[in-house]
């Protein structure tokens, strides 16, 4: 055998071994994460470190290359927003909003449920969903006790609304943050393409809630008075800091709306907001604020990016994208429908973050296959590819509503409810959430079909 | 002075199966030798093993809903405490007792007792003999009395501080 051929054979064997190793590490990690035997952050970091130790990825690839490595735009956008929220939380703004909302509902249980659903959705569109439900659930439990009504429907509806609301914007839910970074989409793209769908879905959710709970939720007039006697102004503990927070929030929001126009990455906006608010807060102990960043979540992302980078490097993602195209015969409408429903079902069972982390490079590979002569934005934002990105976002975000473990907000709500003495079984949660998930994904499907394939409104 | 010199005997125990109502009734009936009411009791199961300790703080904590925090309890209503107490009434001692019982050796000096109480945030320490059997309890009040006596003796000669 010629030496060149031997070298090639060795190379092929190494490549094959690496292929199976990368896939083995990733899917084993995913299985352990699903089993919840070991904390997902630990598994994700361990899997990532194996990818590096086994030289499936060089450290340089993992840290510095956009194609294989950690997406720092996602990481710093998350960190920036977390710092901002950690600084705002102690001002009492969120308790103020919650009490004010309950009073706006004049103590009527049904009206309060709808207002809380809307507030949750709006807050979730701008904060992460877990933060939103963590802030609202305690007030919800208090109000339910005050009105002597069962808090469980309220809490489940809030989890559902937070997953729906989070779908609306670039910063609403981690899948959207990841998709935006991968496809180089800006804040306004999400507002234009996803927010209308979410508004429509929320309208339908409210109708469903009225149908299910309209007659069931009742309370007595003297109990309503308890709500009306609460003074929401008492919630505001630091009016000066609150004013500063609102100013910075305003700046951040304007920054997000304009970031595409001025060619800033969203992470730049979030980091600027975080740094500005830290500066304005006058704190000389930033370590408290920084320690409260959800580091386990951040490191979970870092580990995942590296594991998925390994899959990209060994060609596993490319293989999957070829299979996907073969399945739909290259028809993009079928592809987007398959992606939406598959994403929804997958996200109902597994964390939608690893799912989207895997799907992102898969879709990029698929685009390369379809339009081999395009590169850069022309490829990533090819008009025929856009509905696929939106289908992925809608499916992955709305799918989280499928089961009690489909989204972190669901897990949090179930945990808080159980601690307060109201156990929500897996099946009880699903009895509410699965039908709503199926209806909302169905609406999303009609939306994508009508908007992009019938009316052809790509722009 | 050592723990064993200051400890009071343990005469009665709670059981894990008692309801909150039964537990508070028992606690209220017992007075210590100097007539002060008791604010915490050990919990012993039917096999005679001490499985926990229950103080009046644990009982108050059991009445407070898990979702309350100082940010939110400002919105509680007038008779919320009564309502929540009624809801907690049939909880059992086993659900709310503190299972980790800090104990102290009979020969431990009082400084060790005081340090353990303050650092662990407890007001009573069961005293154990060499075999780990509980032979008494040291109360924070009794250590305080010793400290107070020293402080007042060490004051000015005319008796003022």
Overall tally of structural domains of chain B: 1
Shape-level CATH architecture of chain B: Roll
Helix content class of chain B: 25-40%
Mean pLDDT of chain A: 92
Helix content of chain A: over 70%
Please characterize this protein's 3D structure.
The complex is a heterodimer of chains A (459) and B (161). Chain A is globular and about 85 Å long. With 459 residues, chain A is mainly α. The model of chain A has no long low-confidence stretch (mean pLDDT 92). Chain A has 23 helices and no strands. Chain B contains eight helices and five strands, in the order H-H-E-E-H-H-H-H-E-H-E-E-H. Chain B has a three-stranded mixed sheet. In chain B, strands 1-2 form a two-stranded antiparallel sheet. Chain B has one domain (3-153): CBS-domain, CATH 3.10.580.10. Chain B is of the alpha+beta class. The longest helix of chain B has 14 residues, at 140-153. The chains are: A mainly alpha (459), B alpha+beta (161). At the A-B interface, helix 7 of A face helix 5 of B.
Key terms:
heterodimer, A: 459 residues, mainly alpha, globular, B: 161 residues, alpha+beta, CBS-domain, 3-stranded mixed sheet
How do the helices and strands line up, and which of them pair or pack?
The complex is a heterodimer of chains A (459) and B (161).
Chain A lengths: L2 H33 L4 H14 L5 H6 L7 H17 L4 H12 L4 H18 L2 H19 L3 H16 L7 H10 L3 H7 L1 H19 L7 H8 L10 H24 L3 H16 L4 H6 L3 H19 L2 H12 L4 H18 L2 H19 L5 H5 L5 H14 L8 H12 L6 H29 L5
Helix pairs in contact in A: 1-2, 1-16, 2-16, 4-9, 4-14, 5-6, 5-7, 6-7, 6-8, 6-11, 7-8, 7-22, 8-22, 8-23, 9-19, 9-21, 11-23, 13-14, 16-19, 17-19, 18-21, 18-23, 19-21, 21-23
Chain B lengths: L2 H4 L13 H10 L10 E5 L5 E6 H8 L6 H4 L6 H9 L4 H4 L7 E2 L4 H11 L3 E5 L5 E6 H14 L8
Parallel strand pairs in B: 3-4
Antiparallel strand pairs in B: 1-2, 4-5
């Amino acid at each position: 055998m010629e030496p060149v051929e031997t070298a090639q054979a060795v190379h092929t064997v190494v490549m094959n071994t690496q292929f199976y190793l990368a896939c083995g590490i990733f899917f084993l990690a995913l299985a352990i994460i699903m089993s919840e035997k070991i904390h997902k952050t630990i598994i994700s970091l361990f899997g990532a470190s194996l990818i590096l130790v086994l030289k499936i990825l060089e450290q340089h690839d993992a840290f510095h290359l956009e194609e294989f490595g950690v997406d720092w735009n996602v990481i710093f956008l998350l960190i920036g927003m977390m710092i901002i929220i950690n600084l705002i939380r102690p001002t009492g703004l969120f308790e103020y909003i919650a009490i004010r909302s309950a009073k706006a509902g004049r103590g009527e249980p049904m009206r309060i449920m709808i207002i809380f659903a809307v507030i949750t959705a709006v807050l979730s569109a701008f904060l992460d969903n877990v933060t939103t439900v963590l802030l609202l659930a305690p007030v919800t439990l208090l109000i339910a006790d005050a009105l002597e009504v069962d808090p469980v429907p309220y809490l489940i509806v809030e989890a559902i609304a937070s997953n729906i609301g989070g779908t609306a914007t670039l910063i609403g839910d981690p899948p959207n943050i990841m998709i935006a970074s991968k496809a180089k989409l800006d804040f306004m793209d999400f507002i234009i393409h996803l927010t209308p769908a979410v508004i429509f879905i929320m309208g339908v959710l409210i109708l469903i809630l009225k149908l299910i709970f309209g007659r069931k939720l009742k309370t007595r007039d003297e109990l309503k008075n308890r709500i009306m006697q609460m003074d929401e102004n008492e919630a505001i503990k630091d009016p000066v800091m609150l004013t500063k927070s609102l100013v910075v929030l305003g700046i951040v929001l304007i920054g997000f709306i304009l970031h595409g126009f001025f060619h800033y990455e969203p992470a730049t906006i979030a980091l600027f907001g975080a740094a500005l608010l830290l500066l304005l807060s006058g704190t000389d102990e930033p370590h408290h604020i920084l320690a409260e960043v959800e580091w386990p979540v951040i490191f979970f992302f870092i580990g995942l990016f590296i594991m998925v980078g390994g899959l990209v490097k060994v060609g596993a993602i490319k293989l999957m994208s070829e299979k996907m195209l073969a399945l739909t015969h290259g028809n993009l409408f079928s592809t987007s429908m398959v992606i939406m429903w598959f994403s929804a079902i997958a996200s109902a069972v597994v964390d939608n973050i690893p799912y989207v982390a895997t799907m992102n490079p898969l879709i990029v590979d698929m685009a390369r296959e379809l339009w081999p002569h395009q590169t850069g934005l022309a490829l990533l934002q090819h008009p025929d590819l856009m509905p696929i990105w939106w289908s992925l976002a809608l499916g992955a975000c709305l799918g989280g509503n499928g089961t009690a473990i489909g989204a972190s907000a669901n897990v949090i709500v179930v945990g808080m409810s159980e601690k307060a003495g109201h156990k929500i079984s897996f099946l009880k949660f699903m009895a509410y959430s699965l039908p709503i998930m199926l209806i909302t994904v169905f609406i999303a499907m009609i939306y994508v079909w009508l908007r992009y394939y019938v009316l052809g409104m790509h722009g | 002075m050592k723990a064993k010199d200051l400890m009071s005997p343990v005469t009665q125990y709670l059981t894990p199966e008692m309801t909150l109502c039964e537990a508070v009734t028992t606690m209220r009936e017992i007075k210590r030798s100097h007539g002060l009411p008791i604010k915490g009791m050990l919990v012993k199961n039917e096999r005679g093993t001490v499985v926990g300790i229950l103080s009046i703080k644990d009982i108050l904590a059991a009445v407070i809903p898990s979702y309350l925090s100082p940010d939110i309890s400002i919105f509680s209503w007038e008779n919320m405490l009564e309502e929540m107490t009624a809801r907690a009434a049939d909880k059992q001692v086993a659900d709310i007792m503190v299972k980790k019982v800090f104990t102290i050796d009979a020969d431990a000096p009082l400084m060790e007792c005081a340090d353990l109480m303050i650092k662990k945030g407890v007001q009573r320490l069961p005293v154990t003999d060499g075999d780990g059997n509980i032979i008494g309890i040291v109360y924070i009040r009794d250590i305080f009395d010793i400290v107070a006596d020293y402080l007042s003796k060490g004051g000015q000669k005319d008796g003022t501080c």
